[in-house]
Amino acid sequence: MRILNISGSAFVPTFRSLGHQVLSVGSSPSCDVHLKNPMGIKELWDILKARSFYPDLVFWNDTCRPPEVFGIEKLPGVTIGFTIDQYCNPWHVPYSWAFDLLLVAQKDYLPFFVQKKLPRNCQWFPLFCNEDKDFDFGLDKDIPVSFVGTLNPPLNRQRPLLLKNFKKLSPLYTHQGQYAEVFSRSMIVLNQSAAGELNFRLFQAACCGAAVLTEDVENGLRDIFRPGEDILPFYKRGNHESAVSIAKKALSNPEKTLEIAKAGQNKVRKEHSVRVRAKRIISMAERLIYNKASQWRRDNLKLIENELRKSFLFLAADRELPLTKSIRDFYMHLGIKN
User: Fold this and answer.
1) pTM (2 decimals)?
2) pLDDT tens track for 314-337
3) Which domain-ending residue is among 233, 254, 271?
4) Domain span at residue 243?
5) How far is CA 176 from the centre of its chain?
6) Is 4 helix (H, G, I), strand (E, B) or coil?
7) Among candidate residues 299, 308, 296, the one with its CA nearest the CA of residue 70
8) Residue 331: Cβ-neighbour burial (10 angstroms; 0-12, 13-18, 19+)
9) Shared domain check, 151 and 114
10) N or C end: fewer C-beta atoms under 10 angstroms in the chain?
11) Which residues of 75-90 are buried (b: 16+ CB within 10 A; e: fewer)?
12) At which of 230, 248, 271 does a domain end?
């Protein structure tokens, strides 16, 4: 299968290892076509023609950044979108009209993408681990509890308060940057989210061999993990005393905690790896192609383009986004042009 991968490149190596031809386009330097500015459909077509690359599947992988490629809805093949951070990106809802199938990482947000006028399917598609990066080094568990991630995220004011208060009652190693070795050395990895979402850290920490201590949230958490079996009991969101109490109890019984860590590691490697997810994407794409799912999109381009304009107006009007005036004006122009 010929796959045009747009924006996030997390699946690109796996798609290739499964035998597919992939052309990646995005802002990452690792992409085949490295973008420094947004790309329109004409420029994209020129690249595809020059490479004689006509995709069977166009796959957009959300990176929590504004769109980098425009005109996806006009491309050949079937289109699949994967929205990850929809909870802080409302523009994803109208933007999703460009796709024949939409994959939604956060289960509770599925209803926002279901619309009567739009026959395309939406599916819950949780995040995942990557064994090539989320490596268990087999090191001694010399870190009782750790947290690795952005320590003062602008959209998550609860995190620094939780970490600060946790440290007052129990040792906690915090770090911002590379995580795999720290997680491998940790008996417990503390997890905290921006908006109750199931984030990558859940799967990464488990894959690295730590027992995960996460907050009690929805978005399919109980569909994936069983508290006390392959993940530690959940702590009350935002409550550091609850988190510390569970951590101390787990550390007092290291044998049981290591059993939970191993069960969690087995779970994510077997059921929630990047390879498992990539195979499912390919399977769904093959079904879409067989069912000629792209026909509705081609027959309703005018309706789709009208919806896509809403996403560009969202972006132009969102003053929280760190956009230059020229880029903001660019989105405004896309939103209002006839």
Assistant:
1) 0.95
2) 999 988 888 889 889 989 988 997
3) 271
4) 143-271
5) 19
6) strand
7) 308
8) buried
9) no
10) C
11) bebbbbbbbbbbbebe
12) 271
